[in-house]
Amino acid sequence: MEDKKANIIAASLVLALIIFIIIARVTLKLSKAFFLIVGADIAVVLAVFACVIIRRRYHKRRLLLESKFVTEGRELRIEYSFLRKVAGVPIKFRSKELEEATDNFQALLGHGSSASVFKGILSDGTSVAVKRINGEEHGEKEFRSEVAAIASAQHVNLVRLLGYCVVPGGPRYLVYEFIQNGSLDHWIFPTSRRSEGHYSGGCLSWDLRYRVAIDVAKALSYLHNDCRSRVLHLDVKPENILLDENYRAVVSDFGLSKLMSRDQSRCITTIRGTRGYLAPEWILEQGVSEKCDIYSYGMVLLELTGGRRNVSLIEHGNDKSKNKWQYFPKIVNEKMKEGKLMEIVDQRLTDEGGIDETQVRRLVDVAFWCIQERARLRPSMARVVEMLEGRVAVDDPPDTQMVIVDWLSIDQDDDAGGDIGRRRLAALASDLGRNLATDSAPCSLTMSVLSGR
User: Fold this and answer.
1) Which of 262, 307, 391, 398 maximizes the CB count within 10 A of its CB?
2) How far apart are CA 247 and CA 208, in angstroms?
3) How many CB atoms are closer than 10 A to CB 298?
4) What pLDDT digit, counting tens, does each position of 349-406 carry?
5) What is the pTM (predicted TM-score) of this model?
6) Where are the domains of the chain?
7) Would you say the CATH fold of 199-453 matches that of 90-178?
């Protein structure tokens, strides 16, 4: 555009000089003044032509250099992007790229309290899951936690973070690899929602369930022991365990995760987990450690075995006073004492047959070791992997009082009369605090409310 404008100005100037020469010839005839004007005009015209030629050559050279730099820059970006992918380093996406990949965020896979997940396809054909994190304070905290926890983690049973996007003053995005078969809850709970995220779900066979248990144990063992900083997931549950095309487990959703240095034994954080998976010491505000993940994992093992939620509310019509919380681990414990362990296995699996009772016993024993109320009694995840793979014997787990089961009715008491719930909460906190006193510092009796699923 600038070159075109310069050419127009040059042409106009030459034309004006020619007109000026014609006017001078008519008015001055062939006088000395006329020849002086003609000479000056010719010099100016030649100077204009010289400037045009020099500018054109300069412009041609500039275009050549720009083309060369663009080509080299594109090659460098491609090479840089390739090296980042090989190294597993997340890349930065533009918001427009994610809008095009997700068709303006149309295909919803799932959503939580502060984030939604959409399916998308990148320009190179890669299928991805784009997590959009909303909210100011909580969204920023979740975004930083997730990136810090998963960015440098490389494990076959951990979801891979491909990239991220930060919109100033807007939502934040995390781009993950797309996992074909959705979350584990669609495959073990009969009443799990099938429509959300377009996952058909089904009933996972016993062999696949046992393999899922080992896969998740390996992923958590890696986070706890093999990362440069110890990573606490703090939200282990079936909804955060994905199944790939071969039904191998992939642990996802690190929005609540915490990083700990090797010399830290525990750290303090607010209670933000899910009912039924929170370790007692976390509820009592004694801080969190890798033992909290182990507790949650034990609960998931029982859900894998029974095909039902660990915590469920039995409703009796509109009369809330008759509603009752049912705690599956307590039922399993009673059946074990009665020698009727196979009665707690998912009915759909027992109808099909072919279940290894030895594996069931091993899985349940490991689960009860993991959900011990005293954190120091819980095995490490590396030890759990050895137990499940049969490399070490699994001793009978100590009997647990399961005091935590009595906490489940507190919300109901709060509906009927807040003072009753608070008195029971203080009494139970004191009781459980005495049981855990040998494991950690004295607990706080000012509790946060248990969050729902």
Assistant:
1) 307
2) 7
3) 26
4) 999 888 999 999 999 999 999 999 999 999 999 999 999 999 999 999 998 777 665 5
5) 0.74
6) 2-87, 90-178, 199-453
7) no
pLDDT tens digits, one per residue of 390-423: 999 999 999 877 766 555 555 555 544 455 555 5
322 is annotated as contributing to ligand binding: no
Distance, CA of 121 to CA of 114 (rounded, Å): 23
* Amino acid at the residue 347: Q
3-state secondary structure of 120: strand
- How far is the C-alpha of 87 from the C-alpha of 164, rounded, in Å? 16
Q: Which residue, among 257, 53, 67, has the nearest Cα to 146 in the 3D structure?
A: 257
Cα dihedral 306, 308, 309, 312 in deg (nearest 10): -120
Check: CATH 3.30.200.20 for 90-178?
yes
| Residue 364, token pair as written in the block | 């349940």
Q: Name residue, tokens 């996992």.
A: 179
- Amino acid identity for residue 300 in this structure: V
Both structure tokens of 19: 């007109």
Which whole-number Å values give the CA distances from 149 to 228, 265, 304, in the listed order? 11, 18, 26
Classify residue 250 as exposed, middle or buried by CB count within 10 Å of its CB (0-12, 13-18, 19+): buried
Active-site residues, by number, are 235
Instruction: Give the helix ranges, DSSP H, for 161-279.
Output: 185-188, 206-221
Token readout for 229 is 């900083």
Kindly report each contact of residues 335-344 with a partner whose C-beta sits within 8 Å and lies 24 or more positions away, as own/partner.
336/364, 344/305, 344/306
Work out whether strand 161-166 and strand 311-314 pair parallel, antiparallel, or are unpaired.
unpaired
Q: Comparing C-alpha atoms, which of 48, 59, 56, 44 is closest to residue 9?
A: 48
Q: Which CATH superfamily is domain 199-453 in?
A: Transferase(Phosphotransferase) domain 1 (1.10.510.10)
What does the alpha-carbon distance between residue 115 and residue 359 come to, in Å, rounded to a whole number? 37
